[in-house]
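Why run this: before we spend reagent on co-expression, it is cheaper to look at a predicted model of the complex and decide which construct boundaries make sense. The entries below are exactly what would go into the expression plan.
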Amino acid sequence: MALELRNITKRYGAVQVLHPTSINVTNGEFLTLLGPSGSGKTTVLRLIGGFTDPSDGSIFFDGINMTRLPANRRPFNTVFQDYALFPHMTVAQNVSYGPLVQRRPPGAAGKLIDETLEIVGLSGLRARYPSQLSGGQKQRVALARAIVCEPKVILLDEPLAALDANLRRQMQLFLKQIQRRIRTTFVFVTHDQDEAITMSDRIVVMNHGRIEQQGSPRDLYYRPRTRFVANFFGDNNLLEGVLVEAQVVETALGRLPISSSHNTPTGRKVFLSIRPESLKLGQGPFSVTAEIEEVMFGGASTRLLLHAEAAPDIKLDMRLPGETRENAPKIGERVSLIYDPLDAVIVEE
Amino acid sequence: MQTRFLRIALFLAAAAVPLVLILVPIGSFLLLSLFRAEKHQIIHDFTLINYVNFLGSWTYLGTFLGTLLLCLEVMALSLILGYPIAWFIWRQRGSRQYLLLLLAVVPLFMSYIVKLYTLRSMLGLNGLINQILLGIGIFQSPSRVLLFNQRAVLMTMAVIYLPFVILPIFLALERIPRSLLHASTDLGAGAWDTFRRVVLPLSLPGTIAGGLFAFVLALGDFITPQMVGGTTGFTIGRVIFSQFGLAYDWPFGAAMASILLATALAGIVAAGYAITRQRV
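The model came back. Tokens follow.
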């Protein structure tokens, strides 16, 4: 266990921005703190970095208590949201700032700086000033500046938020490749679920200053445990109902089966969560009839928005893969929907 | 058609104000400096005799160079005093910062003469400074070294121009994004390294501007040397004043004023060049 947060909390006066939270990060892991603004994810990052002190709890790294260690003496480096590049220094000067102020021997540091600039693909831009760089290039400088310090953990505070969609996807891949190459632990903060899913080894979902759920991207996507998580990752169908038997939920659309294991007692109010791509056209013992409201062609798949016949105010969302001209669905058409009970999970409020 | 005419008329009227109030007086001064005076009469033929007289006489040129040196000293002293104050105000949080900032600029709203008299009484024989120095035992008896000399002019000017120095430095500091300070700390820099390598370079434009204010204000000030300078605190401002008010040699005064203006402009250009060289 490399980085351990033990019951850290943060209060500003009477406002509790972070309830007691424990997170363990293993060496070389890409961990993402995911949540909407105000969820406490940035607070966690700032606490790890040492920019704020926890009101309670402690931070350990490799068994050493770092809670009271000032930011400049922690073996962690941050990539800031606005990059925070020094405007009066060139790319090379920005990157060599860490080794310089840490009084590292110039010879070895110089070699490391060259290597790092090579890794992030900035060797040709050494003499440029930040004002002469594009957003993606600034991002690389910020990353290089952190990497060159050879930190045990790199903290990234929404580093891709300011980039446009195309560049963001490129940088996601780039960050992931860099992380694999240098084998450093990354703690990444974002509010973008797609980013979290595509990049992380593990995601910690936060909401209202608490951890909602943590696990692998697949876990969180297919096995959400709370309504918040079920809604947060991509589109989802959440049907309100009551768990009448261990494997049956009574909803406005009838009694619908689930096959996944859970430990919710029967009689509890729950939500049945079915991903849009798990809904299929077809007949079965528990099929639901619905009317197509909207057809949105999306290339690889077509999105259908429907409402149930039995309860018109219940909207359903589904994806049809590889549409052909013959079976193109039409607005107003009535269809029968089924799903594999293995793909359905129940979540609680 | 009528509105367009009105617009042009309004533009001309607006442009006329700075034209008439700034450029015309300066132009007339330059013109005046090319005339000469004889027995308090201005002779209207073009000559460079005033400039030749100025450059040829060590009394005038020496005073001018002495004044330049004094102004540089004022600039240095007010920066040495002003920078730490601006920095201190900048480090404060919330309402305390604004209160301190307000206190720092309050002297701007006070009468110049009142400030001069206050400083004069503080520097005087029974003044606050003398009393303090007596109290801690540095002086054995009250001393006159603090007043009516070049040193008194230097100290008084530096103190009086302090708000003009503090304000631009504070604004420059305030413009530094907090994240840069965090980044510096994050990369392992201590407080001193952060100050020396990030804060100081990034606040340099404001510091240059503040220094320029002090320099230019000191250059044109003839009241302070008169009030606290005594007989040795002679500056070019006083010389120019006496050419107009006492000697009635307006063309010679105008020539020296023109040289002073050129010096101030040179200072402004140099400062502007230094600021644009900063990448902030």
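The interface with chain B takes residues 49, 51, 70-73, 76-78, 80-82, 84-88, 97-98, 101-102, 129, 131, 145-146, 149 of chain A (CB under 8 Å). The first strand of chain A starts at residue 3 and ends at 12. Bring this page to Monday's planning discussion.
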